[in-house]
Amino acid sequence: EVLAGAGAVKIWESCWVGHELYGKLGEGVARGQCEKSMIVEDYSHGQAVARLLAGAYGLPFFPTALS
């Protein structure tokens, strides 16, 4: 969040940060998203694990039925 607020983050990839319960992300991430200076991507836990598995196996992606 500190780096995002300083403008040092271009892509924010997260897996259910938890701030969604309150209807917002942190101030730095929200500002970057509104100003379109940051790409914000949110994944499910299953999708995040599939991405890590693909990297561990040296694959470009890991097929899954989760979405």
Automatic annotation (TrEMBL):
Q: Which domain of life is it from?
A: Bacteria
GO MF entries: transferase activity
What SUPFAM superfamilies does the record tag this protein with?
NagB/RpiA/CoA transferase-like (SSF100950)
List, alphabetically, the InterPro entries matched: NagB/RpiA_transferase-like
Q: Which UniProt keywords apply?
A: Transferase
In Swiss-Prot or TrEMBL terms, this protein is called: Acyl CoA--acetate/3-ketoacid CoA transferase subunit alpha
